[in-house]
Amino acid sequence: MSSRAIAKVFKCGATVLPLLGLAIPAAEARERKAEVTPYIEIQQVLVADLNDGGDVLTYTSVAAGIDSSIQTRNAEAQLNVRYERRISYQDDFGDDDVITGLARGGVQVVPGLLSLEAGALATRSRVDLRGQSPSNTVGNIDNVTQVYSVYAGPNLSTEVGALDVNANYRLGYTKVESEDTGALPPGQLPIDIFDDSVSHSASASVGMQPGDLPFGWSVGAGWEREDAGQLDQRYEGKYARADVTVPVSATLAVVGGVGYEDIEISERDAVRDINGDAVVDNDGRLVTDETSPRLLSYDQDGIIWDVGVMWRPSRRTSLEARVGQRYGSETYYGSFGYQPNPNTAVNISVYDTVSGFGSLLNDNLANLGTSFSSSRNPLSGELNGCAFGQSGGLCFNDVLQSAASSSFRARGVNGQYTYNYQGWEAGLGVGYARRRFFASQLGAVAAVDGLVDENYYTNLSIGRDIDTYSSFDANVYANLLDSGFAGAPNVLGVGANAAYYRRILPGLQGTAAVGLDSYRQEGFDSELTASALLGLRYDF
């Protein structure tokens, strides 16, 4: 799940039944194995604009990467990373370097007591929801930027008599490169773009499972902070809460919690010119006035509470639903997981959290398991929006819908379906994400205060081994973007691609792929792009 709100409850709630992630039995999961596959690729790609007889772009791609998966008794890790150099033959298109990858890992330093975990992501994000929505990011593409995020930290989990004791800390860093948003609707001004941030997250809890008492209980506390470089923005949240779990039957429990939370978000003003206008640097970002006093953009403190039910009729099925009061209004969140067999899994999460761009990206990484498949666009080599594993998946669309610098309240729903059987691999991700931004009315980004953007998205990946030597896969995506700005029309992006893979010699594989991508925005020329690729890959 990608909800900080849900994560907090489970981190400090030792009484909660083990409902998160319907993992396969431990004996199966701990099978020792290690697969490390470095590779190189060379590809020839053609991209044609099908609208109004547009440009035809050809380029050569040279790439190197590594796919690895390690699983031992005390360690699990997966890494998929790729560097690509695109060499264009057109004078008006420069060469391009692209790094994409996804990694998650964990190691038991002291088995049953202390572990370390880490995660990293390199991908591309949309800059502004009002601009273009390209999928095939080849050539001089506007409104797309490179994003890097990494986190690491220890987890402590032990028993002291009948007490369960848990604690964890996480340090994260996120960086967004500067890119141009390109053309915006008439009358629309660029928004300030996220630069980088350092985030911290710490929590601790102690409690008892039901047994010695007719109910379970836990008390816990936590602290989170994100310091962003842009306008020196700062998010800081502290909470303390107590939770109880009351079993109603062997499979059903009533849960509830109450506590206190204090969240404060602030920023500094931008440097102003002689006309009082905010100064923008060469990267298109506002220049921070370091002498400015801190300007409060969000301040919420008080009692928080929630009640709900937890239902687990078997180790393959789980449901949690909660309703309560938080962030000054009603809050709803929960999760559903169903894994009828080792080959099929369904996961749905409803989330509600206040966060910044970097912290939410770190949260999503932390909630991704250490065994997953990250599908790529066969034409661009870039990661698709979702990653899938045996027990479920995770989509990053709710974070990467735009790289705005301001903090926000994020609410939405994510759903994933995965299927792996007899050579077939399929993954479906669907979701809805809504963000309400916070900014000081006295600062340089006052226009985004209260702004609400929305994103509806779906990603489908399917593949199959045809025979011993060949396979295919296909991807379909669609997203509808509403920026929330008055006068800015919605942007609809859709596309599909397919690839055929054939082993030529041991270690050497040939690839042929085609794709069609389109986005539409009222008031702008629509874009329809066809792509084709021929390539070779050698696995060492």
Report on this structure:
It contains 4 helices and 25 strands. The protein has helices spanning 4-11, 26-29, 357-366, 397-400, and strands spanning 33-49, 56-71, 75-88, 96-110, 114-126, 144-160, 163-176, 196-208, 216-228, 234-247, 252-267, 295-314, 317-326, 329-341, 344-355, 373-376, 383-389, 392-395, 408-421, 424-437, 452-465, 470-482, 491-505, 508-521, 527-539. The protein is globular. Mean pLDDT is 86; it is low at 1-30.
Feature tags:
25 strands, 22-stranded antiparallel β-barrel, globular, 4 helices, disordered N terminus, three-stranded antiparallel β-sheet, 5% helix, mainly beta
List the helices and strands and how they pair.
Elements: H1 4-11, H2 26-29, E1 33-49, E2 56-71, E3 75-88, E4 96-110, E5 114-126, E6 144-160, E7 163-176, E8 196-208, E9 216-228, E10 234-247, E11 252-267, E12 295-314, E13 317-326, E14 329-341, E15 344-355, H3 357-366, E16 373-376, E17 383-389, E18 392-395, H4 397-400, E19 408-421, E20 424-437, E21 452-465, E22 470-482, E23 491-505, E24 508-521, E25 527-539
Antiparallel strand pairs: 1-2, 1-25, 2-3, 3-4, 4-5, 5-6, 6-7, 7-8, 8-9, 9-10, 10-11, 11-12, 12-13, 13-14, 14-15, 15-19, 16-17, 17-18, 19-20, 20-21, 21-22, 22-23, 23-24, 24-25
